[in-house]
Every structure is written in C-alpha cells, then in structure tokens.
Amino acid sequence: MARTNIRDAADILRAASVPVIEERYTTGVYAGKSWKDVGWQGQPYRDVKFILWHHDASPTGDSPGALWWVKQSELAPCGAIWVCSGCNGAHAAGTWHVYAGLLSNHAGTGGPGWGVGKDAMNAYALGIETDHTFGESWAPTKKQAQLASLRLGTAALMKAYGLNPNPSLLRHLDWTNGEVDGVPRLPTYGRKNDISGLDLADERVRVADLMKKIGKPSAATRVRQQIKRLTALRDTTRKEGGDTSPLSERIRKLRDRLRGL
Predict the structure, then answer these.
(1) Which range among 47-61, 160-174, 224-238 shows the weakest confidence by mean pLDDT?
(2) What is the rounded distance in angstroms from the CA atom of residue 155 to the CA atom of residue 60?
C-alpha cells in the first residue's frame, strides 16, 4: 500500500528517543492547521519511498530563523522536518521540528533516476532539512549531536516505513547531480551540493546499523526482565516448599549488575 503521508513521524521519532517538537501554525496560509494536515496545495505524497537529506543554506551557526522560512515562505512547506542545532540553547541540539504531514517542496529539478521521473521526486521523498550550510563543519560538539540525531531519526523513520538506506537514503545533490547508484550525470549537475560534508556510502552504512538496534531492549531492560522472571520463579518455588537459595543468589547478582549499567 502506498504511503501518502507522514502524520505518524513525530510518534516514530519519540519512540526512538529522538527529541521532537510538533510545530504549530498561527500565521500565514496554514494558520490554524495541524502540521499533520499541512502540505503543498494540500497534496498527499504519491508514495514515500525515499528520504532526502538537505541543508537549509542558513548562516553558519544556529539559525532558528530558518524555521520560519521552511514553514512560511512562498513555496512552503519546504521539506517536512527541520533538524536544528539547538536554536541558541532553546532545546537540545538535534531536535526535530516536524511541520508538514503531507507533500512538500524540496527536491526540485533533477532526475530521472531511482525509478522516479524527471523533476518528480517531491511526490516520493520525505525531505529533511537541517540547520547547516555550505562548508560548515560537523566537528563542533553541538554539530556532532545534531548529526547523531539526524542519523538516528532517519533510521527510525526508515525502519518504520520499510525503507532500505541503500538506495532509499539520498542527499539533495544526488538527485540533482546523478552519478550515484548507476544514475548517469544529470543535466542539473552542480545545481545543488547539499547536504554538505557527508559521504553517502558511509551514511547509508551508519543508518543501516542504527536500524538494526532500534527496538532492541537495552542491557538494563534485559537484566530487569531476567530479574522479574527469576523472582516469579523463586516465589513459586517458595510456595511449593522448594530450595530458593540458588534463585535468590542469581537475583542478587543480577541486581548488582543492574546497578553498574
């Protein structure tokens, strides 16, 4: 079945422990609407098969004003989610601002490629904007937190939507340039270079690795589950008059281990 919206995106991200803000519209053409019902001319996606990473080309450093632009500019919504670098300390670096549940403008001219026709990627790709710009470094601690969150959130969405990072994770520059996954150089080569500073092959591997870990219980959770099962077994053994000392010793050791996690 085709996926025509991403109205569940905020819930998916929260379940993966990614910080999320569900944006509201109090002014502009979408005033009074829930983000879940916001889309370019009210259109749904044809089918979400890709995630495209972008940067917003804002000034270097925190640029919270870029959020207004992606939500309210003439072609807004531009992308569906904006991943910030902390908005000058307002919240954690790597917070996902979710602002469009339906189709958005972001991919623009490019293709054909990846089974998508010329200039048609908006209908098939969730566009994720980032507070980042041309040549900006990912090295600062805050930027590393933003990048880690971008990867984790992308992994969570791809897992929920049944997408494989190879080939479903792309950068904007791939759509406009080609020369990736067997797609030849495109007429729009050089039009865009976002997302700046990230290698596609490496990012696909990183996101795929994160997808394997999402949904798996942590070590502490697994130990708690063991303690719960052994405690129930110990109580049953006690009622039946059996020797509970081996079970009690195992529970004690697990509790010691839990304190160290």
Answers:
(1) 224-238
(2) 26
Least confident interval from 20-34, 39-53, 209-223: 209-223
Is 158:50 a contact under the CB 8 Å cutoff?
Answer: no
- Residue 61 phi/psi, 5° resolution? 90, -175
CB-side exposure of 25: number of CA atoms within 13 Å?
23
Strand order in the sheet with 81-83: 20-22, 96-98, 81-83, 125-130, 50-53, 169-171
Contacts of 175 (CB under 8 A, 6+ apart): 52, 107, 110, 111, 113, 121, 125, 192
Model confidence, pTM: 0.83
Say which residue the tokens 């059996």 belong to: 242
Q: How far apart are CA 221 and CA 147, in angstroms?
A: 27
Residue 32 vs residues 8, 43, 57, 101, 109: alpha-carbon distances, Å: 20, 18, 28, 15, 31
Each residue of 70-115: pLDDT tens digit?
999 999 999 999 999 999 999 999 999 999 999 999 999 999 999 9
What pLDDT was estimated at residue 226? 87
As a whole number of angstroms, the distance between CA 31 and CA 25 comes to 5
Q: Is the pLDDT of residue 6 over 80?
A: yes
Confidence of residue 137 (pLDDT cuts 50, 70, 90): very high
Helix axes 245-259, 219-239, angle to 10 degrees: 160
